């Protein structure tokens, strides 16, 4: 059985750190906590789980802190998490099984990162990241913000999921934005990846005009990862919707198809465009296509799961309602209800359509 070091970087995480460590401490052989300047009880909480709690002076560089934490690992593999992440029970079982069965020739194991869930615990957004890596390879983190771990060799994709559970899921810290703004003020040349993630920060802080500027700069480099290109098209569509330019939003939804086969997320965007234009047959075409696509199983990019499950059916219900095809509307609403049985809009549609159909 392989041994595992858990490496974490933290700052002022007293409200979530114990929850994270409780979910994983019995699965790993060593815990290394690197504190970057906490002023609360984070270090005291960490000390309950490990003696290896160390300080690292913060210098606006996440990669530097993560590489420092990796340098202190001593086990066969390194596993990393953030303080507001947890391993749920089913994933704990899978992680334990992985430790007992992992071939030591494997260089990296990827895991699913569940970014958000709905009120019933269903995953609404996820992606995949390298999570467990062979220590002997001395893999390095790169990027001051939104850092990434560069790996190579034999990589396997596991079904284990890390679940992100922030205390304030809709609150966006200005920390990352400030780091980018400082770098920009110092006339630093941004890489394509920097342009992409700076645009994301601008979008999250509702600076839509500037976000458009940097997403477009990113796409014009023609050097972005395909999944980032597709994501940027989606965010550009969102930005243009926010500033009232539906035509440009439509344009970028279509542009996503130039990078890969259609994704349900963009079929739903196009369906929404036509729905807003009251072109219901065209909207039906795109929403129906969304229901016919197969969800990628090992896609590394962000997946908005509602677009692959209930949302297009809910919108087909709306379209067919406007077209006077109430039985079809009801059929698709019932399909949507199988995925989201407590959704208020779906339940409202059910009641409305049952009253109409019983009347007819």
Q: What attributes characterize this protein structure?
A:
single chain, 360 residues, alpha/beta, Spore Coat Polysaccharide Biosynthesis Protein SpsA, Chain A, Serine Threonine Protein Phosphatase 5, Tetratricopeptide repeat, 2 domains, nine-stranded mixed sheet, two-stranded antiparallel sheet, 46% helix, Glyco_trans_2-like, Nucleotide-diphossugar_trans
Describe it:
The chain is α/β, with parallel strands linked by helices and 360 residues long. The protein folds into 2 domains: 4-164, Spore Coat Polysaccharide Biosynthesis Protein SpsA, Chain A (Alpha-Beta Complex); 175-359, Serine Threonine Protein Phosphatase 5, Tetratricopeptide repeat. It has helices spanning 17-22, 42-47, 62-71, 89-101, 175-185, 192-204, 208-220, 226-242, 246-255, 264-276, 280-292, 311-322, 326-339, 344-359, and strands at residues 4-10, 30-35, 53-55, 77-80, 85-86, 108-117, 123-134, 140-142, 148-150, 155-164, 303-304. Strands 1, 2, 3, 4, 5, 6, 7, 10 and 11 form a 9-stranded mixed beta sheet that branches. Helix 2 (42-47) links the parallel strand 2 and strand 3. The protein starts with a strand and ends with a helix. The model has no long low-confidence stretch (mean pLDDT 96).
